[in-house]
From TrEMBL:
Listed GO CC annotations: extracellular region
CDD domains: RNase_T2_euk
Ribosomal protein is among the record's keywords: no
Organism, scientific name: Aspergillus sclerotialis
Entry annotated with the keyword Aminoacyl-tRNA synthetase: no
GO biological process assignments: RNA catabolic process
Active site: 74, 132, 136
InterPro entries according to UniProt: Ribonuclease_T2_eukaryotic, RNase_T2-like, RNase_T2-like_sf, RNase_T2_His_AS_1, RNase_T2_His_AS_2
Protein name: ribonuclease T2
GO MF term set: hydrolase activity; ribonuclease T2 activity; RNA binding
Keywords assigned by UniProt, alphabetized: Disulfide bond, Endonuclease, Glycoprotein, Hydrolase, Lyase, Nuclease, Signal
Amino acid sequence: MPSKQSTLFAVMYPITLAVASTLPSCPSDIPLSCHNSTAVSNSCCFNSPGGSLLQTQFWDTDPATGPDDSWTIHGLWPDNCDGSYEQFCDKSREYSNITKILKSQDRSDLLDYMSEYWKDINGDDETFWEHEWNKHGTCINTIEPDCYENYEPQIEVGEFFEKVVDLFKGLDTYQALADAGIIPDSSETYTFDEIQSALKKMHGQEVTIICDGDKLNQVYYYYNVKGNAIDGDYKASAAREFSLSDSADGIRR
């Protein structure tokens, strides 16, 4: 049996377990974003006004950026269901230390993946990640600090980058095109319809295809979400515009 002294020690120094930050469990009847007919009051379970979330990808060749057999991540952008969008929505949560934040949250595996597949064309990945969070991540209303129980500062930053990578892993643009016989080759050309058909087969809906001159350069995959942006149910939705030029105003965000 434990002695009286050891029992007293246990009483005097109880073990306290940390409680993790969590987003709320959303009701099953919450509408799909961009599909509500009336206002939705639960702002932590309904993405609005940025109810259309775009997972965007690059194929950079000048200079060649990222793996030879994969596209790279551009970002995850909340659009207002009509083509307009907000940006830099919370100055108090703009950060210039994404790498440090991810390391502090034990997300080293995520950071390693981003270092390979979320590349800046000029070699400054950190600044690129900061830009995507500050401009777009801060505008996703369902991951604002007030939405979390037991909020830990910057937890939403790590969860945002985890979600973007998770979506990207489910959208292997290179393989979808390769399966349709569309392989990068300076001597070969492919039609818009061939590319759109291959990507729609994977995504389930039409995508936005962007060219830099006559070279395929970017793809935008559209989603609506039932619930919050981290663990909600993502539903593929059709692009508002199917083909754009990278030289057009407002395209590269």
